[in-house]
Amino acid sequence: MRTLHSDRLVLEPVDSRNARELWRVLGAPDLRRYQDIPRLRAEEFERQVRSRPRLLQARVTGRFEWLVRAGEPIESVGWVSLRINERAPDIGEIGYSLIEAARGLGYATEALGAVVEEAFEASELGELQACCVPENTPSRAVLHRTGFREVRLLRGGAMIRGRHVDVLLYAVARGEWHRRRQREAVRSQRS
């Protein structure tokens, strides 16, 4: 995996050298409001990270994660993940979250856009999906700004804090993403 850059962010691939830093970010209590983040000991989390694939490329399945870094001095403010399942290797599932102090600054949109671009460029994925609880309106807005469209409501589709909750499924296809990028390039040339 490679380091990704956006206008204000650096997205650093998570590996054994920085797994503990991601583990600390995942421990922020405000991240658990809308997500079921497993509670693992640091050593177990590091073991899981070591077993992940190292390269995002065609026909590789597994979990890929990036630490989102921002600010001066630069610090970790969140993460973005991409999971590619062996049962559906042409579909990737995106997840993301920022610590509370980094929300509302456009970082999530930048980070998600960078990972979507990388996912479509480095792999053969035909579609990316993301799930979001309906009441998480800021995250829904991030998905819309990044080109995802709402597909359907999945009743009881996720488990958060030990209970089943409804989630909205969002998706963006490779072709949609590239057409959107072309329109943005044309607009920026006209400006």
Show unreliable segments: none
Secondary-structure-derived class: alpha+beta
Secondary-structure element pattern, one letter each: EEHHEEEHEHEEH
As for the CATH topology, it is Aminopeptidase
DSSP, total strands: 8
How many helical elements?
Answer: 5
Helix content: 25-40%
Taking all residues together, what is the mean pLDDT? 88
Number of domains: 1
Q: What is the CATH first-level class name?
A: Alpha Beta
What does this structure look like?
- With 191 residues, the protein is α+β, with helices and mostly antiparallel strands.
- It has a single domain, classed as Gcn5-related N-acetyltransferase (GNAT) (Aminopeptidase).
- It is 31% helix and 32% strand.
- The protein has 5 helices and 8 strands, in the order ββααβββαβαββα.
- Strands 1-2-3-4-5-6-8-7 form an 8-stranded mixed beta sheet, sandwiched between helices.
- The mean pLDDT is 88.
Task: Using brief descriptors, characterize the structure shown.
191 residues, alpha+beta, Aminopeptidase, eight-stranded mixed sheet, 5 helices
List the helices and strands and how they pair.
Blueprint: E1 4-5, E2 10-13, H1 19-26, H2 42-50, E3 62-70, E4 75-84, E5 91-98, H3 107-122, E6 127-132, H4 137-145, E7 149-160, E8 163-173, H5 174-190
Parallel strand pairs: 5-6
Antiparallel strand pairs: 1-2, 2-3, 3-4, 4-5, 6-8, 7-8
What's this entry about, in short?
With 191 residues, the protein is α+β, with helices and mostly antiparallel strands.
